[in-house]
Amino acid sequence: MQSNYNLALVAISVVVATLASFTAIDLADRLSILAYARARHLWLAAGALAMGVGIWSMHFIGMLSFSLSIPIGYDSGVTCYSLIIAILVSWFALHVVTRERLKLLHLLAGGVLMGLGISSMHYMGMAAMLMNPAIQYEPTLFAGSIVIAIVASTAALWVAHTLRGADQSHVMPKRIGAACVMGIAIAGMHYTGMAAANFPVGSVCGAANGVKPQWLAAAVIPFAFAILIVTLFLSRLDARVEFLANSIARLNDQIDRRRGPTHWSF
């Protein structure tokens, strides 16, 4: 069956993947320096939500860039399940990279589980189309997309763990470069998976009367950018407020030391 891609949406999907990657790296750094358990749990939950929405949005924007010669739509229930998987995968990833030490075994196991989770999210999103007959996947490209997801996830975990807690003035270019590479890798997994999909002639989309692609695009794109940018802003603001607070505390300590002990006379 003939298919086409909207190149503008393809470009947007890569940008969202890159922004989600940068958000993950930034949050890993923020979580690594938080001393209070409650604050860590709150930021971990918020980070998982933002990162999960970002990754999920990238994949759905990529799917929305794809059109067939028949009307298509997406089942709302299956679509929500794929979003939940993305959030859980993101929580797991942030939990792994903020460990005090990341052993090789943990890195590899985390990369495999995260890669399989991202692949599951992608193919569940494809299943939301409820195609009849079912989508047929070319085995080599199907396996290749999963391998790309695992390799990209492992590299992402290693980069995020390595760059956390580093000097901000020197590490920012590295974070931006790493986010770009990770974004392209995530997009590569998605479009490899899309290339693996074969739609037999005469296929019918069982979810054609479900959520329309146009509605999803109008809702997902601004929501994805909004939640990622707001999360980055709040993370930066929280870090800056904490640095002002720590500076004042250090200044007070210096003043107290210079004054020396106080002698009381009666």
TrEMBL record:
Transmembrane segments: 6-29, 41-64, 76-97, 104-129, 141-163, 175-194, 214-234
Segments forming domain MHYT: 5-200
Keyword Membrane: yes
Keywords per UniProt: Membrane, Transmembrane, Transmembrane helix
Keyword check for Transmembrane: yes
Official protein name in the record: MHYT domain-containing protein
Organism lineage string: Bacteria, Pseudomonadati, Pseudomonadota, Betaproteobacteria, Burkholderiales
